[in-house]
Amino acid sequence: MKLKKYIVGILIAGLVLSALLSLGLGAYVISPGNILNNIVRALGGSVPVDDVAYKVFWYIRMPRVVLAVLVGATLAVAGVGFQGLFRNPLADASLIGVGSGATLAAIFAIVLGSTLLLSFQTILGQYLLNVSAFVGAILSILVVYRLSRSQGKTHVAIMLLAGIAINAIVGAASGLITLAAKDEQLRTITFWSLGSLGGANWKNILALLPFVAVTMAVMPFMGKPLNALALGEQDAVSMGIPIERVKNIIMIVCAVGVGACVAMTGMIGFVGLVIPHIFRLLLGPEHKKLIIVSALGGAILLLLSDLVSRTIIAPVEIPIGIITSLIGGPFFIYLLLKEKNKNIF
Length: 345
Known about the structure:
By secondary structure, this protein is mostly helical. It has one domain: ABC transporter involved in vitamin B12 uptake, BtuC (Orthogonal Bundle). 75% of the residues lie in helices and 1% in strands. The chain has 15 helices and 2 strands. The chain has helices spanning 2-24, 32-42, 51-86, 98-112, 118-124, 128-148, 156-178, 183-194, 202-218, 223-229, 233-238, 243-265, 271-283, 287-311, 320-339; strands at 149-150, 153-154. Strands 1-2 form a two-stranded antiparallel ribbon. Helix 13 (271-283) runs parallel beside helix 15. The chain is globular. The protein starts with a helix and ends in a 6-residue tail after the last helix.
C-alpha cells in the first residue's frame, strides 16, 4: 500500500540518481562536484572547470542521458498504449510492424544506400539511415492501419493479424537484402538491430523531440478512455467514449513516437513490453497512473542499461538491446512467477 502511495516520488528519485550515475561514470569519471560545477559554468557561473571534463559532460554524457530518458519514456508509454489498445498485457509496437518496417528500411539504406539512394545520401548525409528507418516504420504503420479499416471503423483483431503478416513479409525482405551485404555492412546491421545510444548529440535530440513531445503530451489524456476500453468496446461506447477516435489517436501517436525512437537508436527491445507490465502487476490497471510511472520506469531502465553497456567491458560498448533484455527479462519472469496464482491474465 505504501509502495503505491509513494511510487511516483520513488521513481523520480531513482531517475535523478540514475542520471547522475550516467553523467559521472564511464571511461572518464566525473565526480559529483565536477558535475555541479559543469552545470553552474553552463549557466554563466565563474567556477573553475577542467576543459576536458566540460566537453565530455556537455557533448558526450549529457546528450546520451537526455536521449536515454526520451527514448525509454516514449517506448514505455507507447507500450502502455498498445497493451491497452489490444487489451493484451503482452502487446507492444512490434505487433503492428513498427520495428520490422524500420529494420527493413535501415538494412536497405545500409546495403543499397550508396547506389540506389545516392541522391538522397547527398541530401541527407549521415542522417540517411535515421530518415530511412523512420519512413519504413511509418509505411508499415500505414499499411497495417489501412488493412484494419473497414466501414469507417478500425478493427483491433484485424490490425493484430495484419501486423503479424506485415512482420513476416518485411522480415523475409530484410533477410533477402542482408544476403547481399558485405562483412562491414553486416556488422552495422547487427549493431543497429540491437540498438545503441552511441550516436547521441544535440542535433539528433532536437530532431527526435517533436515526435516524443506529441506522444508524451497526448497519452496522459488517454488514461480514462483506455480504462473504459479495458471493459470492452461496447461498454466504452455506452460510457460516451468516442472509441474509433480514441483507437486512431493511440495508434498514431504511439507508433510515430516509437518509429522516431527506433530510427534514432536502432531496435531496443523489451522496454515497451516489460515496463508497463511490471507496473500493471504492482499497481493495477489504472491507465492514467500507469502511463506516468511507466514513463519514469522506462527512462530509468534505459539509463541504467546504457550505463552498463558502456562500462562493463569499457572501452567496448555492448549493444543496449542486449542489456535491456538481460535486466528486464529475469525480473519479468520473477514477477510472473510471483503472480501466477492470482489469475492476472
